[in-house]
Specification:
Distance between the termini of chain B: 10 Å
Strand content of chain A: 15-25%
Distance between the termini of chain A: 89 Å
CATH topology of the largest domain in chain A: Alpha-Beta Plaits
Structural class of chain A: alpha+beta
CATH class of chain B: Mainly Alpha
Number of helices of chain B: 15
Structural class of chain B: mainly alpha
Radius of gyration of chain B: 21 Å
Number of strands of chain B: 0
Shape of chain A: elongated
Strand order of the largest sheet of chain A: 8-1-9
Oligomer: heterodimer
Radius of gyration of chain A: 25 Å
Number of domains of chain B: 1
CATH superfamily of chain B: Formate dehydrogenase/DMSO reductase domain
Chain lengths: 265, 379
């Protein structure tokens, strides 16, 4: 039998299932041995209000009107583990890697702390330990160690409502498409993460428009590393061009200089 | 007599600058012990701030004069600019040393600054930038080394450097073209985050064009200031030539900026009253419109006062551009749910300390090294 944990994994988050119990938040903290950061009441249940270096996943609580009825949405929020991640291409020292099994992993021993990954990530996922003298970049690991051991991610395992469907990415995408076709009218006709940033290992289905839930719809449907790679591949051309142009102009001006000298006795 | 003993070092200005430097060193030590969070206002939504925007992006752009003048003199044989070549190279060397120091302090783990040299990732623009900083700082050190060798009467070393100078200068031109543009390329990966006022596929080219403007203005500014301070004759022919080059670069840059403005957010968006529109307008008026207006004609470019005013505007305007790219252009996307960034007083003091170091360092060099060899005979 083929080693199943080297096939790229994915997760479908079906937001219509989530009841906002935050079991995933607790399981994540426990598995990853994260501490807490103190927060204060600010009129919203989302807590902590943003992901931070101690919190790799949280539930966003959004109340809005649908068919003149108030409806709640609970949005599971964590690293989407892009197929070709901007953060991995940005990292100058290969501290971030996309593994064959799907998780984007981080190796502190290589990291210099330039934080280009944080800038490059279109989803604002990597967080920094600002308060430490030797800080780490922190983000969801897709429980890469658990996947290696053929276990399912902590948040997926603990979810009481099967909000998350975990499996080989191909099967996960198939499942998302199946749910869309089997339940006409239930979901908005979009799989968030199928194309965003060239595709992500975590994908979403929702019954209310994604933009109303804080999903960024501006993110282009292409792999972001291509944008910088287009520049890098031009570098050899620039090298040859500048050296050739420089050598030629130097030769010409030198000849002129010598001619000047000959003219003046 | 090789040095300018008449230059007074210990002036009230120098005392203030040294004071700022001392305070800056204390803050740097505190940053190393207590971490970035204790000293800066950086946060998860704004991972880069003043030190990247001003000290690194601005400092490197300011240093562009070094490769331009060295290239003009040693490759294109434009002898006219020979009197300012040493000062331009030394200025660039200071710019790069400061940018390298700033980036070393800005990264989370400064003692790992050498990692990119051994841990390659050729897909990363940051790796490309890091390698360029290392190579070009070495190149600038080589280019400026004859001044130091002369001081210590090491004639063989001077001869050796002069023998390899032309290829070294050409290598420096190449590295600069790549480095100036790659700093713009760093931001190619944030199409959804950066405001369309600044994001474009031609960010690298625009960074290069504006660095040429900045570099020439910086050299011109320095020539005027050091000419006055050290009381040697200021060559108007050199200043007019620099001004002409600056205007040509500015016109090209303006064309590109306008093309992407019309293609992107549109001209009307500039006047919508948004913070971005105001910052864009401020940047363009200061860096391009007024300087081009001041130096449009040949007679205008013979007027030192006009040139001096345009120099200051271009330097300030391109600095604003770098801050817009690094900080203000990110606000619309990153500045949600109460997230914000404005540099802390300690970030500002460290930046001022870097600038102070450059000024004092340049002054010391002018006093003790043959920075302006052509003015020797006249004094």
């Amino acid at each position: 039998m083929a080693n199943t944990n080297s096939i790229s994994k994915g997760v479908l988050v079906d937001l219509t299932h989530c009841i906002g119990c935050r079991g995933c938040q607790v399981a994540c903290k426990s598995w990853n041995e994260r501490s807490v950061k103190e927060t204060t009441m600010y009129g919203n249940f989302t807590n902590p209000p943003e992901l931070n270096s101690e919190c790799y996943t949280n539930i966003r609580y959004i109340e809005q009107e649908k068919d003149s009825q108030p409806v709640w949405s609970f949005i599971k929020n964590q690293c989407l583990h892009c197929k070709n991640p901007a953060c991995v291409s940005a990292c100058p020292v290969k501290a971030l890697r996309k593994t064959a099994a799907g998780p984007v992993t981080y190796d502190f021993s290589r990291c210099i702390g330039c934080r280009y990954c944080m800038l490059a990530c279109p989803f604002y996922i990597p967080k920094y330990e600002w308060e430490k003298a030797l800080p780490w970049v922190r983000k969801c690991t897709f429980c890469s160690e658990r996947i290696k051991a053929d276990m399912i991610p902590a948040c997926v395992k603990v979810c009481p409502t099967k909000t998350m469907f975990y499996g080989n990415y191909e099967d996960v995408l198939k499942e998302a498409n199946a749910r869309l076709t089997k339940n006409p009218g239930k979901y908005v006709n979009h799989i968030y993460g199928k194309d965003e940033a060239g595709g992500t290992s975590w994908i979403y289905l929702s019954d209310v428009p994604f933009e109303s839930l804080g999903f960024d719809m501006k993110i282009p449907a292409k792999e972001l590393p291509d944008l910088t790679w287009a520049y890098i591949t031009k570098i050899p051309v620039v090298i040859v061009g500048v050296l050739a142009a420089g050598a030629v102009s130097w030769a010409i001006t030198r000849r002129n200089k010598n001619m000047d000298r000959e003219e003046k006795p | 007599m090789n040095s300018h003993q008449e230059i007074k070092l210990w002036t009230p200005l120098t005392k203030v600058l040294v004071g700022i430097m001392a305070l800056g060193i204390l803050i740097i030590l505190y940053r190393l012990v207590a971490g970035l969070g204790a000293v800066t206002n950086l946060n998860d939504r704004f991972p880069w701030g003043l030190w990247i925007g001003m000290d690194v992006l601005g400092g490197v752009a300011m240093a562009a004069g070094g490769f331009l003048i060295a290239g003009a003199v040693y490759i294109l044989n434009m002898k006219k600019y020979k009197p300012i070549v040493r000062a331009s190279i030394l200025n660039a060397f200071f710019g790069y040393v400061l940018a390298a120091t700033a980036i070393s302090l800005d990264i989370g783990i400064p003692y790992r600054i050498w990692h990119p040299v051994f841990m390659w990732q050729i897909h990363s623009i940051m790796w490309v930038v890091a390698i360029h900083v290392v190579l070009y700082t070495t190149t600038l050190a080589t280019e400026s080394s004859p001044m130091f060798f002369e001081k210590f009467k090491m004639e063989k070393a001077v001869k050796f450097v002069h023998a390899i100078l032309t290829p070294v200068v050409l290598f420096g031109v190449l590295l600069s073209v790549l480095h100036q543009s790659s700093l713009g390329a760093v931001y190619l990966i944030v199409p959804a985050k950066m405001s369309p006022f600044w994001y474009s596929s031609q960010l690298p080219t625009m960074f290069l064009a504006s660095a040429v403007m900045m570099g020439l203005s910086m050299v011109s500014f320095e020539t005027i200031v050091s000419g006055r301070a050290f009381k040697h004759e200021i060559n108007m022919d050199i200043l007019s030539g620099l001004a002409r080059g600056m205007v040509i670069a500015a016109v090209i840059y303006l064309g590109m900026k306008m093309w992407f403005l019309v293609k992107g957010p549109g001209i009307a968006a500039v006047f919508s009253g948004s913070m971005e529109g105001i910052m864009y307008l401020l940047e363009m008026v200061i860096s391009v419109f007024i300087p081009i207006g001041l130096l449009a004609t040949k007679t205008a470019r013979a007027d030192m006062k006009r040139i001096f005013a345009a120099d200051i505007l271009v330097i300030a305007g391109v600095l604003i551009n770098r801050l817009n790219v690094a900080i203000f252009g990110m606000y619309r996307d990153a500045g949600v749910r109460g997230a914000w960034y404005f540099p802390s007083w300690m970030e500002i003091v460290v930046t001022l300390a870097f600038i102070s170091f450059a000024i004092v360092g340049f002054k010391v060099s002018a006093k003790y090294l043959r920075l302006f060899p052509e003015s020797d005979s006249k004094s």
